[in-house]
């Protein structure tokens, strides 16, 4: 049960990263974010990492369900 909840949490974190990244890409062109770099660049990073987390969360949920672990 805990593994399934962890997989769902990873999936939701990925979704937040995707939408946060899209927001940064759209609204922060040319803005320096806390000294980290351009807002669009950080947005692309959040978008890609969020997509990876979403895919990982879905794969983990499917594995745990098919193996009877969740």
Key descriptive features of the protein:
mainly alpha; 2 helices; 70 residues; 0% strand; single chain
List the helices and strands and how they pair.
Elements: H1 2-27, H2 39-67
Helix pairs in contact: 1-2
Fold and architecture overview:
This protein has 70 residues and is mostly helical. The protein has 2 helices and no strands. Helix 1 packs antiparallel against helix 2. The longest helix has 29 residues, at 39-67. The radius of gyration is 15 Å and the shape is rod-shaped. The mean pLDDT is 86.
Q: Compute the average pLDDT.
A: 86
Compressed to H and E, one letter per element, the order equals HH
Proportion in β-strands: under 5%
Mind summarizing the main beta sheet? Answer: none
Provide a count of the helices. Answer: 2
Cα Rg: 15 Å
SS elements, strand count: 0
What shape does the CA trace take? rod-shaped
Structural class: mainly alpha
Question: Into which percent range does the helicity of residues fall?
Answer: over 70%
Query: How far apart lie the N and C ends?
Result: 5 Å
Question: Low-confidence segments, ≥5 residues, pLDDT <50?
Answer: none
Tell me briefly what this model is.
By secondary structure, this protein is mainly α.
């Amino acid at each position: 049960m805990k593994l399934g909840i962890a997989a769902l949490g990873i999936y939701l974190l990925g979704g937040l990263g995707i939408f946060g990244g899209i927001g940064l890409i759209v609204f922060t062109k040319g803005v320096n974010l806390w000294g980290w770099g351009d807002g669009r660049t950080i947005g692309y990073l959040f978008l890609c990492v969020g997509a990876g987390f979403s895919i990982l969360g879905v794969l983990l949920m499917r594995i745990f369900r098919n193996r009877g672990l969740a």
